[in-house]
């Protein structure tokens, strides 16, 4: 909390500063100003919670300052300290939000009492402000979610129209709406420019895009953009007014989206349908329209139900090329991986169209292929796993699928998998990992470095040095850790004596076992058992 003392007399400012134990009131900064003008600059910059001010000062006096504070910093608490017992001054103090009017010379008890009241009042107000803020945040967070669910039910569930329409008529002023249009803004796949910024936070993206669309729609009477609860359907616009301007508004939305996000999107529109009875029909029309959009086209970006669209064609499936890609990945040859992926992209490029449904199916196939390639191998702890690429299909800023970029990205993705499989094979065949596994399986035996090295026909020196290089700890340290970790599990069960646990994990001497256990855990075995039982 900050305090500002405003007085043209330096000794008065010093007196106030010295009379108060500021820390007792949780006040961290005590600021000073010699007149109202300099006080205004300080208030704007520092935002003090409590302000002491004199009345008679050069430049800007206390009366003018109080009036200015009421307008510019109304949440601050104001206390007047004046040498004048003047009714006009007192009246002005009360009128402009002053909490107290103290006369000079200053009484310490009166000063502390006034300060205490001001600090308590400010804290009470701040708690109320915080509570109201949290309520506003909660409302702002839950209200859009509520309308998302309500409008999703309206467009997707036949029979829900009448009940939802009555509620929406009150909330959005749709009581006189007789017809509407349903529009889907396709957000899957996302253009690369957008994916880079919002790929990890799709909810924020949909919130931002929904706000932009609603800004263009204008009055709620003209419609509302909402996020469909099925993520496959992205944003849906229910337009209820000015339907003759639909195309112009969608173009304006795309211009605004491009300005903010650096990319344009495709819209699938229904015909005009009755409201509310025809809303579900309108949504089915948008889905049918969306399924006919080809992402190989540059334009148009606005598609209407009933217009000529892409004719259904036999789907080219990734499964037909999976064996080529799998062979190339297992061989780990970059050129062969590139050729296998290029064959797939070439086949896609020969299609008359690449539709929304095609992309969704290929994403599913890609996921299966990736799982199959990695299914026999579990990554080690802390090791990076190849990304599954949430975007997967590169769209440019105009929503067009870039086959060359697709070829490059998939070649890199499969090459990354090939490299990890190669590392995995090397790891599996690496003697030092075999030694680690051997210790994991035989920790309860009386293992020595000589015995372990002999088991693998290696020198003690090599095993000791290489184990430390790979795992950053000595074999003896690792063996102790494995034994104590297993001892913890046995102790927690409560079924075995501590001496028995020691023998079960490879220690013949119970006291030595307790010493090692304490070193690694900071507790004796008995204390560990009691702690886990508690």
From TrEMBL:
<keyword id="KW-0238">DNA-binding</keyword>
<dbReference type="InterPro" id="IPR009057">
    <property type="entry name" value="Homeodomain-like_sf"/>
</dbReference>
<feature type="domain" description="Response regulatory">
    <location>
        <begin position="2"/>
        <end position="119"/>
    </location>
</feature>
<feature type="modified residue" description="4-aspartylphosphate">
    <location>
        <position position="54"/>
    </location>
</feature>
<dbReference type="Pfam" id="PF12833">
    <property type="entry name" value="HTH_18"/>
</dbReference>
<dbReference type="GO" id="GO:0043565">
    <property type="term" value="F:sequence-specific DNA binding"/>
</dbReference>
<protein>
    <submittedName>
        <fullName>Two-component system, response regulator YesN</fullName>
    </submittedName>
</protein>
<dbReference type="GO" id="GO:0005737">
    <property type="term" value="C:cytoplasm"/>
</dbReference>
<keyword id="KW-0963">Cytoplasm</keyword>
<dbReference type="GO" id="GO:0000160">
    <property type="term" value="P:phosphorelay signal transduction system"/>
</dbReference>
<dbReference type="InterPro" id="IPR018062">
    <property type="entry name" value="HTH_AraC-typ_CS"/>
</dbReference>
<dbReference type="InterPro" id="IPR018060">
    <property type="entry name" value="HTH_AraC"/>
</dbReference>
<keyword id="KW-0597">Phosphoprotein</keyword>
<dbReference type="GO" id="GO:0003700">
    <property type="term" value="F:DNA-binding transcription factor activity"/>
</dbReference>
<dbReference type="InterPro" id="IPR001789">
    <property type="entry name" value="Sig_transdc_resp-reg_receiver"/>
</dbReference>
<dbReference type="InterPro" id="IPR011006">
    <property type="entry name" value="CheY-like_superfamily"/>
</dbReference>
<dbReference type="InterPro" id="IPR051552">
    <property type="entry name" value="HptR"/>
</dbReference>
<keyword id="KW-0804">Transcription</keyword>
<feature type="domain" description="HTH araC/xylS-type">
    <location>
        <begin position="433"/>
        <end position="531"/>
    </location>
</feature>
<dbReference type="Pfam" id="PF00072">
    <property type="entry name" value="Response_reg"/>
</dbReference>
<dbReference type="InterPro" id="IPR020449">
    <property type="entry name" value="Tscrpt_reg_AraC-type_HTH"/>
</dbReference>
<keyword id="KW-0902">Two-component regulatory system</keyword>
<keyword id="KW-0805">Transcription regulation</keyword>
